[in-house]
Amino acid sequence: MSSSTPAVGRKLTWVTKFTYALLPLSFTMTTMVMTWQMIYYTQPLAISIGIVTTMLAVGKAIGGFITPIWGYISDRMYSTSFGRKVGRRKGTLLIAAPLNLIFYVLLWVPNMPVWYYLVINVIYYGVYPGINTVVYSLPSEMTDDSKDRAQLVAVQQIGGGVGGFALSMVNAYLFKIWGADGWQPYFKIAMIYAVLGTALLVIGALCIKERPYDETTDISSADKGNAEKVGFFGRLVSVFWNFLSVLRIKTFRNYLGIFLSQMTFRTVRGQINAYFIMFVLLLTPAEVSLSTGFSFLFGMVCVVIWATIITKLGGMRAYRIGSWFTIALFVGIYILALNVSSLPKATVTLVFTILITLFTLGNSGIVNAQTYVQSFVPDVDELVTGKRREGQYAGIQSTLEVIVNTVVTILVGVILQAVGFQSGADVKTQSATVVNVLLYMYCGTVVVLALVGILLTYRMHLNEKTHDILVAESARLRNGGSMADVTDETRKVVEDLAGIPYEQCWGHNNVINATHKG
C-alpha cells in the first residue's frame, strides 16, 4: 500500500500546492541545458555547430519517443513491491531523479570526444522524461476537485516561469563574476543547478499526494489478460498499442485537435519571431527586448488571472476568451506591419512591444486552459478502461510536443528556402516575396489555427457538470456498483464523452490490451 495520502475526494492544502511547485521549479536544470548547452559545446569546447545541432536533435528525438515508455512505467509502478510501498508517481520520480542528476552532470564534463557527448545526450534525453511525465500527470493524479486542479496548473506555470527567470538573473550575475571564457564558468554554474534542482525535485517528490493502490491503479491485470505474464516483446507492443488506442476515446480526439492547433501556431510564431522583427517590421530584436522583464512579471499575474477565470467559467470558455484576444492582437500586428513604411521607427517599436506583451495574456489563457482540460482526459479514460493512466496521457503529450517542434522547424526552413530566403542578407536584400511570406506565416498561422481551436472547443463537452457525473459513475463502479444500474443521464454523458457504447466501457474493450475481446 502506498504511503502517500490520497488527495482524491478532498481539498488539497496550500502546503501541498506549494511543494508541488518545487517540481516545475527544479526544471531550471533543463532550462540551463536548453539555454547554454549549445553555446558551451560550440564556444569553449569548439565543437562544430553542425555536429552540435545534429547531436542535440538526435538526443531530443530519441527522448521524445522514449517518453511514452516512462508514462507506461509510471502507470504500472504499483505492480512492483517498491511502487506499492512508496507510491507509483513518487517511486518513478525517485528512480528518475538520481539518473537525471548523473547524466546531467556528465553533459558538462569538458574536453571529451564527440562520440561521448552524443551518447550522453541520448541517455540524458531518454532519462529526463521520467521526471516531466510524472510532473505533468500530477494535477489529475492528486485530486478530482476542479478548482484544485486549476490551481495546480497555475502553480505549475508559475514554478516553471520563476525558475526560468531566476536562471537568467543568476546566470547574468555569475558570468559577470566568473567571466564567460573557458569551460570552467559554465561547468560551475551547471553544477550549482545540479545540486539545487535535484534537491527541489526530491523534496517535491516526497511531498506529493497520489491515488492509493486499488483496482483502478493496478494495471497489471489488464496488461496480462489471460496470460500468466507479459514478456519484454509483449511490453513493447503494449507501449505502442497504448500510444495509439487512446484515439478510440472521443474526448481525447477533440482535445488532441485543440492541443495541436495551439501548439503549432505558438511554435511557428516562436520559430520566425526574430525574422519577422528584422525583415517585416525593420527593427532589431534588441529594440523590442526591453519588455522581457516586464513580460515575465506580467505573465505571472496573467497565470493567476486565468486560474480564477477557469474556475469561474470552465476550461473551454476560458480557452475561447484567450484565443479571441490573441486573434485580435495578431490582427493588430498585421495592420501595423502593413503600415511600417509610413510610421516612425519609434512608433512601430512601441506599438509592437505593447501588442506582443499583451500576447502574454492571451497566450497564458490558451496554455492554462488547455493544460487544465488535459487534466480531465484521464477521468474519461478511467470510465472507458476502468484504470487510472495519467502517465499515459502526459507521455503522449510530451512526445507530440517533440514531433510538432521537429515538423514545424523543418517546414519553416523548407518554405523560407523555397521562396528565396537569403541567409546572412540584410533587410534591403530580402525579396518582397520573403517579407510577405513571413508576414502571413507570422500572423496568418496564429489567426487561422486559433479559430480552429475555438471551433474544436464546441465539440468538447467535458465541463464541470459532465465531469462530476463522470467521476461519480467511476466511483460507483469502483465500489462494486453494477453497470446495469446506470441512469439514462449518466449513460448519455458517458457515451458522449467516450464515443463508445456504455456497455463497452469500464474495461469491456481492448483499449489497454489489444488481445482483449471485451
UniProtKB/TrEMBL annotation:
GO terms for molecular function: symporter activity. The keyword Transport does not apply. The keyword Transit peptide does not apply. Keywords: Membrane, Transmembrane, Transmembrane helix. GO terms for biological process: carbohydrate transport. GO terms for cellular component: plasma membrane. The chain crosses the membrane at residues 20-39, 45-70, 91-109, 115-138, 150-174, 186-208, 272-290, 296-314, 321-340, 346-366, 398-419, 439-458. This is MFS transporter. It comes from Bifidobacterium aerophilum.
